[in-house]
Amino acid sequence: MTETSHDRPVVRRGKAASATGGTRGKGLTIQRIFTTPGVHPYDEVTWERRDVVQTNWKTGDTVFEQKGVEFPDSWSVNASTIVTTKYFRGAVGTEQRERSLKQLIDRVVLTYARAGKQHGYFATDEDAEVFEHELTWALLHQVFSFNSPVWFNVGTSAPQQVSACFILAVDDTMDSILNWYREEGLIFKGGSGAGLNLSRIRSSKELLSSGGTASGPVSFMRGADASAGTIKSGGATRRAAKMVVLDVDHPDVEEFVETKMREEEKIRALRDAGFDMDLGGRDITSVQYQNANNSVRVSDEFMRAVEQDTDFGLRARGTGEVIETIRAKELFHKIAHAAWACADPGIQYDDTINDWHTNPETGRITASNPCSEYMSLDNSSCNLASLNLMKFLRDDDTFDAQTFAKVVELVITAMDISICFADFPTESIGDTTRKYRQLGIGYANLGALLMATGHGYDSEGGRALAASITSLMTGTAYRRSAELAGVVGAYEGYARNQQAHKRVMRKHAAANDAVRTLHAMDKDVHALATKAWEDCLSIGDANGWRNAQASVLAPTGTIGFMMDCDTTGIEPDFSLVKFKKLVGGGSMQIVNQTIPRALRRFGYAEETVEAIVEYIAEHGHVVDAPGLRPEHYEVFDCAMGERAIAPMGHVRMMAACQPFLSGAISKTVNMPESATVEDIEDVYFQSWKLGLKALAIYRDNCKVGQPLSDGKAKSADKEETVQAPEPVVEYRPVRKRLPKSRPSRTTSFTVGGAEGYMTAGSYPDDGLGEVFLKLGKQGSTLAGVMDAFSIAVSIGLQYGVPLETYVQKFTNLRFEPAGLTDDPDVRMAQSMMDYIFRRLALDYLPFETRSAMGIHSAEERARQLDTGSYEPVEDETADVESLQQQAAPTGQQQPAPAAPAPAAPAVAAPAPREVHSSAELYEAQQGRTADAPLCFSCGIKMRPAGSCYVCEGCGSTSGCS
Hints:
Elements lengths: L3 E2 L2 E2 L37 E9 L6 E11 L4 H10 L14 H18 L6 H16 L3 E3 L1 H6 L11 E3 L6 H16 L3 E5 L19 H14 L1 E2 L4 E2 L1 E7 L5 H20 L20 E6 L1 H9 L2 E5 L6 E6 H15 L3 E4 H6 L24 E9 L12 H21 L5 H10 L2 E6 L1 H7 L7 H29 L9 H16 L6 H24 L13 H6 L14 E5 L5 E5 L2 H8 L4 H14 L27 H11 L10 E4 L5 H13 L4 E6 L11 H7 L26 E8 L2 E9 L5 E8 L4 H19 L4 H8 L8 E5 L2 E4 L2 H13 L2 H6 L5 H10 L6 H14 L20 E3 L7 H9 L16 E3 L2 E3 L11
Parallel strand pairs: 6-7, 7-10, 10-11, 11-14, 15-16, 19-20
Antiparallel strand pairs: 1-2, 3-4, 5-15, 6-15, 8-9, 12-13, 14-20, 17-18, 18-26, 21-22, 22-23, 24-25, 27-28
Helix pairs in contact: 2-3, 2-11, 3-11, 5-6, 7-9, 8-9, 9-21, 11-14, 13-18, 14-16, 14-20, 15-16, 18-19, 24-25
């Protein structure tokens, strides 16, 4: 991106900038990363027209329709739908409405390039053009994305609000409290979220100057909550997102801790009384405090008191004197109990946060944004951008750290430019942001990257790679910030905080030195990160830094889908089998494409890869998958399911990355329903010990106001009516006997060295009616058992039990003999029963039925390797080919182009009709509940994204990314 010396990007500039930014350099010389001189990025891709129609599946209503939108053919249906519905501007049906991704990217990128030229960021006009083309290429190929407000607002007639994250301030006056309500509303309207700390407001145990008793912060939360509940942000794209923080030494802290737990009990009582208390239900609005995330800000003093089981003082807001003494361990238990009961409050570690604060001379960090990743000064904001880590995975499964660093430099430059033209909802927020220029670069798809490279999420190797990448990202961002300071000046507040800022940079560099790498990939990334921090410190000593903050790890909900990411933010994979929409309509359930890549990396033979992927397609997990070694199970562990990652596995991953972030990490640690209050206490306590800045937990099924099932609510609405007795009609199955003479098929087989014979008799219309089994060289007892089993199955078939039911019940039974067979259609069997019913399925079930169960013939598997589809019908084949094209590379230049891998076997099958998202597919396949709300816009079950939720169908989020 810039001129290089010994393969390290450098910047050409004139005089070095002073710490105050008084003297400026010449400007950046931008090098090409992906683009070709004389060729515009738009000319390198194939474009196609699509119709975007979005319906609410529950009501059947069409909520959005725009036909003929233009996107690259490599973009998935989901990505194009979300961009069209969320980010295209202009009234639908008018000439002003955007209808092409080109228009959207141009609207944003040209604004950035114009501002960069105007404010002296580039050495020449040619450098500005290269910057424009590189930014366009990276966005076009889903290498990174800006946060949603950029897409909402930049280049439109609306205020140019680019920040997604805001921190407000409120003082102990009525004017300030009412202004808080107003400022939150303005922020929500602009498509963003806000957080604030209420600890300056005096408690309900203190007196007013008039002699009366103060209301306390919890009472004022009611008004703000009601206001937030009525506002949809970003043009009705999502509900308002907010965070409320209270210090642990506030006298009203116990009331604050129990606030949402008490409301949850109210929800339970109202639901049982027949009211509609689902999220979005007509009666849920009567419940308070549901529109905010709550967090308690704990100090090291409090945590040490918990550790030592001593008392702790609650202090008056005005004087600071202790007005009540409590047992610290008891309060900590109440915090954990409330989180156990309703997932709130989360916890923020105040001293850790402020120990990494670059601007302590200006003020303390007292609060965060709603998702807890942005932590900075009061009345400030942060604009975010996230890189798609899978775009930097080479064909040899190594991480392209050098290209990653160059893209970080490109993106952080663009993010800083945006502050030059950005508008802000309040004057104080604008003033603070322009003086301190807080940025939040981050990434998505970490879970997919770890799986593709053969790393378990909860493993030392996985954490070493994640830490190295995070360190490289932040070190490179701050190095570029120091270079920018030499061109356009350090941030205005730098002089006042110079020593503190340098101290935090040294802390980051020291943490990088403490990383212990395990493999060649980690070492290569870490070596580049070490060089980045060395340069960051040396250039920063001379120039200062352009930005007070540089990095966070955000939820990346909507923009994650825009980039076609499998996983959001720092999260592991949600599940191994995904829901996928197809071009031209229809949907499929598809095995995660990184699974076969990981298996081949471990050296599994192609036949074994095929068998494992088929097993995953049917079961949704890898436990007992044929041929998969147990020591490799951890690579395929997910956030939910049969081998869900343990809570401390999430905490350890956060702890590995936290020292390399200016802000914090948006993440909720999922815990099983069986988790105890003591388990939650341990997670909160260990997170403090490990140096996290913030944490939230979610225990499965802890929230009642969640649309897990609406059957009870519907039944409560029905009026009971008395009807006259009706005749009782008794329905019994009727046995359909086979004719005396019927066609039959005899099959000999071998499973794990044991021989057997199967004779299957059919009705004249080819329906299976009987099965006889004989196992050779076996004792008479087993022969008798098999005869009895054969009779039982045959009678069941004749009474109308579908063969499909038997296949579902008896395939995948695991017992000896098991192993290789002599049947080319069923290469491995987990037992005799597994083989027998797979063979019967191949012989007697229609293709669609057995394909949905992952059972295919050798001919069909060969066809799939050649064409990407098992389907024998041409139009159905086209659908699956379309699916494979969406999942595969486009053939255009990529940051780290992956070599075409062998086609992934058994990855696709038609999705059940009732399934509309990966969360719903998980529920259907696993028979377990995915704890998540339904989307307000389209009725589809959302999935976790950081400490928020995101809708896979329309991109709506419950947060601020």
